[in-house]
Amino acid sequence: MPLLKRAAPFDDSDWLFELKYDGFRALAVIEYGGAQLLSRNGHPFASFADLGKQIAAALPSARAVIDGEICSLDKRGRPQFKNLMFRRGNPPCFFAFDLLVRDGKDLH
């Protein structure tokens, strides 16, 4: 679709809009009281180990795989990819999109 320049943002009651989470897509693999964040290629996000610990603490008895996005939010709550890349600003957070596996059962 070609780009169009508009004077005002598009808005229409027949359309639903959602925030674009500008970060790293990740799977949170939660089991045995721990959680690991993995890339879509299955590589661990080692630099977000503390975030994995926070997820595990929030879901202490869970055995699950959750699809989501690792983001860094600014003061107004907007995702800032540069802050995430350079590890500055607010600590990273995880936005969960989809519960893929729970207690060994594939929900996908």
Amino-to-carboxy terminus distance: 31 Å
Radius of gyration: 17 Å
Order of helices and strands: EEHEHEE
Backbone shape: globular
Second-tier CATH architecture: 2-Layer Sandwich
CATH topology: D-amino Acid Aminotransferase, Chain A, domain 1
CATH class: Alpha Beta
Average pLDDT, to the nearest integer?
92
How are the strands ordered across the major sheet? 2-1-3-4-5
Instruction: Give the structural class.
Output: alpha+beta
State the fourth-level CATH superfamily.
DNA ligase/mRNA capping enzyme
Q: Compute the number of helices.
A: 2
Largest sheet: 5 strands, antiparallel
Uncertain residue ranges: none
Range of strand content: 25-35%
How many domains make up the coordinates? 1
Count of extended strands: 5
Helix content: 10-25%
How would you describe what is shown here?
The chain has 108 residues and is an alpha+beta fold. The protein has a single domain, classed as 2-Layer Sandwich (D-amino Acid Aminotransferase, Chain A, domain 1), CATH 3.30.470.30. It is 14% helix and 31% strand. The protein is built from two helices and five strands, in the order ββαβαββ. Strands 2-1-3-4-5 form a five-stranded antiparallel β-sheet, with helices on one face. A hairpin with a 2-residue loop joins β1 (24-31) and β2. The longest helix is centred in the middle third of the chain and has 10 residues, at 49-58. The relative contact order is 0.21. The model has no long low-confidence stretch (mean pLDDT 92).
